[in-house]
Design brief:
Elements (H helix, E strand, L loop, with lengths): L3 E4 L2 H5 L8 H13 L23 E3 L5 H10 L4 H6 L3 E3 L7 E3 L9 E5 H15 L14 H7 L2 H8 L8 H20 L3 E3 L1
Parallel strand pairs: 3-5
Antiparallel strand pairs: 1-2, 1-6, 3-6, 4-5
Helix pairs in contact: 3-8, 5-8
Length: 197
């Protein structure tokens, strides 16, 4: 068990079934986008078969403590920006100036907060630069807990010893910087939503 961050395919995204689908979120998002004069988000790809290392699916487990990441975000971002990074429950590949909150129950809240992947990507890139995260050494394909495994099973510690920097002083915080960065990149590359489950 635990909390996972996963990509969602079209069937689940548009499914109106209250137990399995996210149709209420999809419909609510499109209503809000239309109200703001933006086009609806309808070009969601079908979920791909899991092919390890292909980068067509996203699945990571939130295991480390998030406390250091929260502190990092408050230390390096403008006062209103950590909220954008920390409070969403759905990430979509749509440019949003501010989050959209829907009165739809999410996995861990009575509401669903939707953030735009371009904004989250910008914020996490800034944090990655602040801690000098070695992005070339960190897994890009996060389809089968690749990032979680990299950070929890010793690879991160080995790279931190060889390439020291602020990122290696708090590997839990670095994990979340990498996690949200890779999630936003995946959402934009594949055009799919990312959700907590």
């Amino acid at each position: 068990m635990g909390i996972y961050l996963v990509s969602v395919g079209a069937r689940e995204w548009f499914d109106a079934d209250e137990e399995e689908g996210r149709g209420a979120v999809s419909t609510g998002l499109n209503e809000e986008l239309r109200r703001r004069g933006l086009p609806p988000y309808e070009s969601v790809p079908e979920a791909a078969e899991l092919v390890r290392g292909s980068g067509t699916r996203f699945e990571e487990k939130l295991v480390p403590s998030i406390y250091g990441f929260v502190q990092l975000a408050h230390a390096h971002l403008a006062p209103s920006e950590p909220e954008t990074l920390l409070d969403w429950s759905v990430l979509v590949p749509v440019p949003l100036d501010e989050e959209i909150e829907l009165p739809v129950e999410s996995s861990y809240s009575d509401t669903t907060v939707i953030a735009g992947a371009p904004k989250v990507l910008d914020l996490t890139r800034r944090l990655a630069e602040a801690v000098r995260l070695p992005l070339d050494a960190i897994p890009e394909a996060c389809d089968n807990l690749d990032l979680t495994t990299w950070f929890l099973e010793g690879d991160a510690e080995r790279v931190a010893a060889a390439r020291p920097g602020p990122w290696g002083e708090d590997l839990d915080a670095a994990f979340y910087v990498a996690l949200y960065l890779r999630a936003a990149q995946h959402s934009l590359r594949r055009g799919c939503p990312i959700v907590y489950t």
